[in-house]
Amino acid sequence: MNDRLLEETAKLIDIVDTPLCSFVWKVCNHIQFENMRGTDFCNLMNLREPLPEIKIRKGESGRMCYMLCEVSKQIPNPDLASKWVGKMLKIFGITQETYNTHHYIDISKSNTSKSNKRFASELQNAINSVIMAGK
Questions:
Q1: First CA to last CA distance, the chain
Q2: DSSP states along 7-36
Q3: Rg (CA), the chain
């Protein structure tokens, strides 16, 4: 799937379900990124033009990578999910190398920081809430 096809897909469907966007926004807003409206975040996550600006807070790139990875797992088409992650990395100004290094947080490891464990747990709870509501 090329970038053009990704853009056309974004015009036709929600790549990321609206409830998922809302729950993730509640976890991340004003913490991982500067304050933005929930509707703007949803539009950004679904690549709706014009793309709202997002300002990632200093030191939060790793957690944003984790968020992208976890949200991408909820996109049914793996090729679409991969292209979406690549596009979001460009929008966030995060390199693929940074993503490859920081997209995974293992909360079971003793050397994982408390703040990373808390973030990963809150994000997983948000995702699970959306999954359970959809059943």
A1: 30
A2: HHHHHHS-SS-HHHHHHHHHHHBTTTB---
A3: 14
Q: How far is CA 70 from the centre of its chain?
A: 7
pTM metric for this prediction: 0.92
Q: Give the separation between CA 24 and CA 47, rounded to whole angstroms.
A: 16
Give residue-wise pLDDT tens across range 93-113: 999 999 999 888 888 888 899
Q: Which amino acid is at 49?
A: E
Identify the burial level of 83 via C-beta atoms within 10 angstroms of its C-beta, where 0-12 means exposed, 13-18 middle and 19 or more buried. Answer: buried
Angle at 128 between CA 125 and CA 64, to 5 degrees: 60
